[in-house]
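To: structure desk
From: M.T.
Subject: fold request, one chain
Message: Could you run this one when you get a chance? Sequence is below, nothing fancy, just the single chain.
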Amino acid sequence: GKALPDDYYTSFIRLSEIKVVPKSLGTHLAGSAGLRNRLVHEYETIDFARVFKSLPYFVRNFKGYVIQVSRYLKL
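Reply: Done. Structure tokens follow.
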């Protein structure tokens, strides 16, 4: 019943607002949208060593995302 989000960042925040994912997870995932935009649109020079070092963090968060969404959808 809510308006669709305009961007990736807001989509994760909205998911936490409607209790699909916990607020802390929604906030962490929303933060990853900025990295996604920098990588996809090449907004700035990318520090690939920093990205590589952050991968376990992103994998853990997105694994949690899949688990939470699956629970919400009762899959």
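Reply (cont.): Residues 47 and 53 are 10 Å apart (CA to CA). Let me know if you need anything else for the meeting.
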